[in-house]
């Protein structure tokens, strides 16, 4: 059983509460960097895919998990980051400049979208973001001269510090680049969470009224949350484009938006781990399913809609039985072991709350 | 006149959107839950009817098969509430939203597995014949859609305002604990309303499938119906219909008068505009509450 | 000059007049209680001061500043903090995090600094935590510091609500029914805390309360409201003896 005696404010503030967790994450980091020597090219590509989805998940997690604004339109911001980055690189900017710039532009547009969106709550916000996602598809086609419309945009291998980084010929370099970006994004996210802004976002999520009374400017905080969330998502979108080599208007559809949201709910809403767990599920599901279908039936005909259907079924199972997601279940198991044999049966029982209409606010 | 023809055919489509929107608003009014799978309920209702009525399946007469399908979908809605939604009793709205979205995917998958992914048409007597009024031509199916939609809206509106069960449903959505204290069996009431939502969706599905072909992705129509429900203002039954009509009428006019890429985005652009300027829809039911 | 001055405030909700030409002032350093039956407009007055509502007519002045020119999120900056009748805490955060949000108005760091977690942010965080620790000491919340609000009993939540308001370092504290739902011992604790807030911390307290025992033991002046209008004002003894007040809701024969 690990008991933490905090003897200084510093102890409360720092990233890792004790030596043990520091050690665990350090080991994880070492394994992550060593992955190119442990995996073959195919699985390394899969790992890179997981990391890219994790970045996208972090983006959405900040908005939905931390600030409570459910967004079903983040595929639009993935697309925005992707196309912006591609256009910037075509204009001659190096990857090192294009990537943060693409994120910045997407973030600014996200903040612009937030201006009317801050007045929307719950379902209305979800619907507005669905509309945004659908509109993105059509707008990409409309802006064909820049986006390549239906035929799409191609991505050249990128140049970074004199090295050509290409997903197929130098998968390890590509992986390391994505890993570094992931670590930076995670660090920023974690820093925000332990600073006043992160707390303000949680305040907006839990009680707007009292947050206002404490001096939190709701609209400003939501706009910031949108901006940062969209910036991170834009970066992920750009990476997705480079990773797959080609994007069209159908790459970032409403289904992707929904899958992103489902992913972070399965992973565990409100936690950094949730984004990573969700990314692992979404990236490895196609593999797992094809192994299963091969084992069950001898035909190799692809079943349309199987992936989405199974993913959705997994989500339903989680919502019904483990609303805190994979990370939640992981925490519960860990605490059970830590408290053994003193764990009580209903320790995590949710308090039942009775519904009160939201139509009177 | 050309305009009139556009208007009238838009009305018929609008009524289908309105029916789906009606289902949304019904469920929302009684349970504060938004059923994102309502469009897929409609698709399922159409396919169940198809499975009962079409020649290659059970080949029952239409006027026997359709009511059975409607009842089956009602039962489906009730059971869905019983097995899935009751677990979420007391959780936040977002959880229900995510659940119903996921449900939509699952329904689409199963419909595809059972009935295939190719578009099929419902063999319905409603599809035969045209109605001519002046220079305007309407398919009988369209006429049926319009008539049934208006009738259904009227009856449901009366149901909610005048009957005891209707009032009980409204009470259960506004303050559950108080409803319990007043002796309202809240869970049973919620089950009933989901059943009702299922039945309305089935009717929408039958009418839609009589007009044209249907495939498992027809549920995506639900998104436009959503736009309709929001434009009309969640919580208002006549508003749902009005919203549906507005969206239905805008579509043909937009595709006629706007360039190719712009016409599809018209309903969604309208939706965003309504949300920006009147966040609670045109016929809003939100008031300020005392904190 | 009074710390808080309300002059001729009027507020209507549709046809209902919630606050009817109300005028009163709160002096610095006193505990001022507002009493009245339900629906008398007490919480509405609070919501006017918190700027959640705009008055139809009248003026609100705090420390010489015109409140009507401020938005609801600027009130904390002026030095007004409040608690809510139906506890509005942040359920998915710990007690410490709730109290730290109370310090939001003292935030001096920018977004970029916080994302990079510079040394300045670190220093500020420690300062915030030190300030909050004083509140925790004052209210004896040490055992609950790292517990999630969602698992805490009602009495403790009420205390955390008070603590969060105190964390913002206010000049004026608005307490909305601080003793509602509390047991006798907890109400006693609340009484001593309010006393200490006034005497040791020099914070002016404006409270809405139904518990006449608490009101009489700790307030300097009392305002009795009925139907949004002033019924009587004075010391607790004076108000309780006022015949109009007795008639309004203390009941005949319940004279002090």
Overall SS class of chain B = mainly alpha
Main-sheet strand order of chain C equals 6-7-8-3-9-10
Strand content of chain C: 15-25%
Distance between the termini of chain B: 55 Å
What global shape of chain B is seen? globular
What oligomeric arrangement do these chains adopt? Answer: heterotrimer
Integer average pLDDT of chain B: 82
> Which strand order do you get reading across the main beta sheet of chain B?
1-4
Task: State the distance separating the first and last CA atoms of chain C.
Answer: 32 Å
Explain what the structure shows.
The complex is a heterotrimer of chains A (361), B (291) and C (256). Chain A has 361 residues and is an all-alpha fold. Chain A contains 15 helices and four strands. Chain A has helices at residues 9-13, 19-38, 41-66, 74-90, 95-117, 122-142, 144-147, 171-193, 196-206, 208-213, 218-244, 254-267, 272-296, 306-321, 325-339; strands spanning 153-154, 158-160, 163-165, 246-247. In chain A, the strands form two sheets. Chain A has a two-stranded antiparallel sheet with strand order 1-4. In chain A, helix 12 runs parallel beside helix 14 (306-321). In chain B, helix 1 (2-31) runs parallel beside helix 5, helix 2 runs antiparallel to helix 3 (62-83) and helix 2 (38-53) packs across helix 9 (221-232). Chain B starts with a helix and ends in a 14-residue tail after the last helix. In chain B, a hairpin with a 2-residue loop joins strand 2 and strand 3. The model of chain C has no long low-confidence stretch (mean pLDDT 90). The chains are: A mainly alpha (361), B mainly alpha (291), C alpha/beta (256).
């Amino acid at each position: 059983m690990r008991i933490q005696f905090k003897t200084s404010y510093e102890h409360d503030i720092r990233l890792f509460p004790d030596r043990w967790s520091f050690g665990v994450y350090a080991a994880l980091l070492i394994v992550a960097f060593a992955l190119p020597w442990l995996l073959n090219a195919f699985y390394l590509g899969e790992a890179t895919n997981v990391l890219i989805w994790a970045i996208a998940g972090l983006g959405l997690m900040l908005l939905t998990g931390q600030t409570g604004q459910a967004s079903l339109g983040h595929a639009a911001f993935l697309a925005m980051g992707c196309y912006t980055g591609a256009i910037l690189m075509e204009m001659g900017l190096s990857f090192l400049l294009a990537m943060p710039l693409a994120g910045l532009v997407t973030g600014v547009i996200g903040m612009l979208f937030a201006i009317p969106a801050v007045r929307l709550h719950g379902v209305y916000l979800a619907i507005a973001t669905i509309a945004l996602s659908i509109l993105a598809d059509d707008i990409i086609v409309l802006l064909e001269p820049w986006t390549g419309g239906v035929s799409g945009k191609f991505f050249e291998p990128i140049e970074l510090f004199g090295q050509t980084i290409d997903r197929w010929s130098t998968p390890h370099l590509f992986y390391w680049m994505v890993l570094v970006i992931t670590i930076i994004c995670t660090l920023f996210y974690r820093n925000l969470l332990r600073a006043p802004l992160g707390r303000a976002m949680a305040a907006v999520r839990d009680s707007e009224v009292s947050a206002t009374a404490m001096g939190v400017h709701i609209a400003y905080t939501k706009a910031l949350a949108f901006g940062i969330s969209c910036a991170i998502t834009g970066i992920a979108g750009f990476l997705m484009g480079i990773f797959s080599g080609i994007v069209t208007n159908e790459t970032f559809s409403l289904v992707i938006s929904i899958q992103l949201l489902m992913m972070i709910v399965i992973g565990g809403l409100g936690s950094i781990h949730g984004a990573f767990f969700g990314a692992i599920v979404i990236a490895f599901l196609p593999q797992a399913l094809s192994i299963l279908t091969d084992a069950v039936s001898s035909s190799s005909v692809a079943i349309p809609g199987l992936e989405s259907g199974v993913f959705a079924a997994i989500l339903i199972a989680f919502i019904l039985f483990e609303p805190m997601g994979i990370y939640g279940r992981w925490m519960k198991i860990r605490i059970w072991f830590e408290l053994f044999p003193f764990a009580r049966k209903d320790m995590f029982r949710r308090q039942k709350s009775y519904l009160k209409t939201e139509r009177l606010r | 006149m050309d305009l009139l023809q556009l208007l009238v055919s838009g009305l018929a489509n609008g009524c289908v959107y309105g029916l789906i929107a009606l289902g949304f608003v019904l469920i929302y009014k009684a349970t504060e839950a938004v059923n994102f799978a309502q469009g897929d309920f409609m698709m399922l209702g159409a396919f169940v009817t198809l499975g009962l009525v079409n020649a290659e399946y059970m080949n029952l007469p239409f006027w026997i098969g359709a009511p059975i399908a409607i009842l089956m979908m009602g039962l489906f809605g009730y059971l869905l509430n019983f097995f899935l939604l009751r677990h979420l009793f007391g959780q936040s709205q977002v959880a229900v939203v995510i659940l119903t979205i996921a449900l939509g995917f699952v329904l689409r998958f199963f419909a595809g597995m059972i009935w295939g992914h190719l578009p099929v048409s419902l063999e319905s007597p409603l599809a035969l014949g045209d109605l001519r009024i002046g220079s305007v031509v309407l398919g009988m199916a369209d006429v049926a859609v319009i008539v049934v939609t208006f009738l259904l809206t009227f009856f449901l509106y009366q149901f909610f305002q005048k009957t005891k069960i209707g009032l009980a449903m409204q009470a259960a959505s506004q303050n559950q604990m108080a409803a319990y204290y007043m002796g309202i069996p809240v869970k049973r009431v919620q089950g009933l309303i989901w059943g009702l939502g299922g039945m309305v969706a089935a009717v929408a599905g039958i009418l839609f499938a009589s007009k044209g072909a249907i495939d498992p992705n027809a549920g995506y129509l639900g998104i436009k119906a959503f736009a309709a429900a929001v434009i009309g203002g969640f919580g208002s039954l006549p508003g749902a219909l009005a919203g549906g009509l507005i969206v239905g009428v805008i579509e043909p006019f937009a595709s006629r008068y706007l360039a190719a890429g712009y016409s599809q985005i018209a309903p969604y652009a309208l939706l965003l505009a309504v949300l920006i300027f009147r966040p609670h829809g045109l016929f809003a039911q939100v008031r300020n509450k005392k904190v | 000059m009074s710390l808080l001055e309300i002059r001729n405030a009027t507020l209507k909700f549709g046809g209902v007049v919630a606050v009817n030409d109300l005028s009163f002032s709160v002096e610095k350093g006193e505990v001022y209680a507002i009493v009245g039956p339900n629906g008398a407009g007490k919480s509405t007055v609070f919501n006017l001061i918190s700027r959640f509502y705009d008055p139809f007519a009248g003026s609100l002045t705090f420390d010489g500043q015109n409140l009507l020119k401020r938005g609801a999120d600027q009130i904390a900056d002026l030095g007004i903090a409040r608690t809510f009748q139906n506890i509005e805490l942040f359920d998915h955060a710990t007690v410490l995090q709730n109290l730290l949000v109370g310090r939001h108005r003292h935030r001096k760091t920018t977004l970029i600094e916080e994302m990079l977690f510079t040394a300045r942010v670190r220093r500020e965080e420690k300062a915030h935590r030190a300030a909050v620790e004083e509140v925790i000491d004052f209210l004896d919340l040490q055992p609950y510091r790292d517990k999630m609000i969602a698992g805490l009993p009602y009495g403790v939540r009420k205390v955390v609500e008070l603590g969060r308001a105190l964390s913002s370092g206010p000049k004026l504290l608005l307490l909305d029914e601080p003793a509602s739902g509390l047991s006798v011992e907890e109400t006693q604790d609340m009484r001593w805390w309010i006393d200490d807030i006034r005497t040791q911390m020099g914070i002016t307290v404006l409270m809405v309360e139904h518990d006449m025992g608490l009101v009489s033991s700790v307030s300097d002046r009392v305002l009795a409201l009925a139907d949004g209008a002033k019924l009587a004002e004075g010391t607790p003894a004076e108000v309780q003896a006022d015949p109009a007040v007795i008639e309004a809701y203390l009941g005949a024969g319940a004279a002090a």
